[in-house]
Write a structure and sequence with these properties.
The longest helix has 18 residues. The termini are far apart. The protein has 248 residues and is an alpha/beta fold. The radius of gyration is 17 Å and the shape is globular. It has one domain: Rossmann fold (3-Layer(aba) Sandwich), CATH 3.40.50. It has a 7-stranded mixed sheet, with helices on both faces. The structure holds S-adenosylmethionine. S-adenosylmethionine binds next to helix 1 and strand 2.
């Protein structure tokens, strides 16, 4: 669990760069929640959550994003967070309890599950959020599950790490003599191995790898998702997606 916090707060170009690392994960999630409510900050781009009645976040960490989205929402909705780490599920439940399990805009539930095997029926959600999770999961499996769970008129928001993210992590790490340089090198190695053999290898210590926009487009086509809009970023771009036959 500590690794997420450290990486989130030290990685170059990361959206949580300005967060002061705190002593506990709950404090970290609370700080992220507070940051997401600051003027000018948007957990997801624009007004994409407006009107959504069934919202799923894959890899919700401490549920800070879902809690703040629920508060800013325009109606009662059904909110579900799926998180692989049982520790982060515990932290998320504590944060939800702190901010009100029952809320006028609907009940928020976090379940422990793998985003590549979502515990839901097909076409259940009209908004799916998946931010900064793809590098840690089987890329095709996760995108295929997003496509399966998305309703025909729904939108999915996907934020990814492009290779430049890890290149900057290495350079930053070398400059500051930080262990993240080694970590970044491992992630880039994973990516190069992937380029050589064409499949994701899951090493025990470091499974993460970046994804290029070109590779993402290929996978989206394969799983039946299409690109609606892009929010560019030099290391962590965000994509708005729809089912292929309903995309633009
Ligand atoms: C970098 S954090 C991003 C958290 C949050 N989405 C945000 O943007 O603040 C990645 C999260 O994804 C979770 N995760 C990694 N692999 C996952 C998987 N296969 N299924 C569900 N969650 C996963 C991690 O446990 C972690 O909480």
């Amino acid at each position: 669990m500590r690794a997420w916090k450290e990486r989130c707060s030290s990685a170059p170009g990361n959206k949580v760069n300005q967060t002061t690392p705190s002593t506990s994960s709950l404090n970290y999630a609370q700080a992220e929640y507070e940051r997401s409510r600051q003027p000018g900050y948007a957990y997801i781009p624009g007004d994409l959550a407006l009107g959504a009645q069934r919202v799923l976040e894959i890899g919700c960490l401490g549920a800070h994003g879902l809690i703040s989205l629920r508060e800013q929402h325009d109606r009662r909705a059904w909110w579900l967070g799926v998180e692989l780490s049982s520790q982060w599920c515990d932290e998320a439940r504590k944060l939800i309890a702190r901010h009100g399990q029952a809320h006028p805009n609907g009940h928020l539930l976090v379940v422990q599950a793998d985003g590549t095997q979502l515990p839901c029926r097909a076409a259940q959600f009209d908004l799916i959020i998946c931010k900064l999770v793809l590098p840690y999961a089987d890329n095709r499996g996760l995108l295929a599950e997003m496509a399966r769970a998305l309703s025909p008129s729904g939108k999915a928001i996907l934020q990814i790490h492009v290779p430049r993210y890890y290149i900057l992590l290495v350079l930053d790490g070398v400059r500051n003599l930080s262990k993240w340089s080694v970590y970044g090198i491992r992630c880039l190695l994973n990516y190069w191995i992937f380029c050589l053999i064409g499949r994701q290898v899951r090493f025990q210590k470091v499974t993460d790898m970046p994804i290029t926009r070109a590779r993402l487009m290929t996978l989206l086509q394969e799983v039946g998702l299409s690109l609606v809009a892009v929010q560019p970023h030099k290391t962590l771009p965000t994509f708005v997606l729809a089912k292929s036959d309903h995309g633009e």
